[in-house]
Specification:
The chain has helices at 5-10, 20-48, 54-71, 74-88, 92-115, 126-148, 156-179, 185-197, 202-212, 220-225, 240-263. It contains eleven helices and no strands. With 265 residues, the chain is mainly α. Helix 2 (20-48) packs antiparallel against helix 3 (54-71). The protein starts with a helix and ends with a helix.
Length: 265
Amino acid sequence: MVKNKVDQGIFQKKCRFLTGSMLKWIAVVTMLVDHLAIVALKGYANAQIANLTREQMERWNMTYRCMRHIGRISFPLFAFLLVEGFYYTKNRKQYAWRLLLFALLSEVPYDLAIYGKVWDFRGQNVMFSLFLGLTVLSVVERIRKWTWKRRGDRSVIRQLMTLFLQIFTISAGAALAYLCRFDYTYKGIALVSVFYYFHSYRVSAAIAGFCAFSWNPYSLPAFLLLPFYNGRRGQNRQKWFYFFYPLHLLALYVVMRAIDFFCLP
């Protein structure tokens, strides 16, 4: 829950009405809008490009950009909920293995939908980014606990070593995400880390998160929602998203193939 006085003063308890389930629904819907633009809308335009007038192309471009902008809301919410899950899950190992399993299961549907191929190394799905983010947080948490156990030792060298190890872990995770071309690459790991360190401070987390994600200003609505989060899970049906993610990508690929079949001469 919110702890600092600034957060409490601005957002009283009655203002915090969003549950984790509500945030996840917002993230899923905006992600779906984004994927519809990338797959279905773009696929239709490519199939009909020879028949579209200049006016129609302009309308298509405007619609496409609007849908992509809406899609920028999703990842910050997923990153925020990942950190919430990290703190409150009963079994972090099981949480991590679940993310990795569905990242692997989703890769073929992701490549089919986004690139039209069974396997493509140009980019990997967002579940890999979330799994790596969770792994980075687990290592950072171990480093911090190692420090807390040795509070009697206040040497500057030990404190600097702890700080260095945390920075190194996050940097290594960011570099790995970039090299493996996970969705949002190092920016995703940076955002997850920001939410981790500002976990107890909703307003501060929103401000710091947006600063870290300011390269995409269209993500602002996601950060504006965070101070209204009440710290509750909401409807206890959290595992449906794991199945929805690969299935909706597969469905979009089928739609794309249908568009190609019926629209191309």
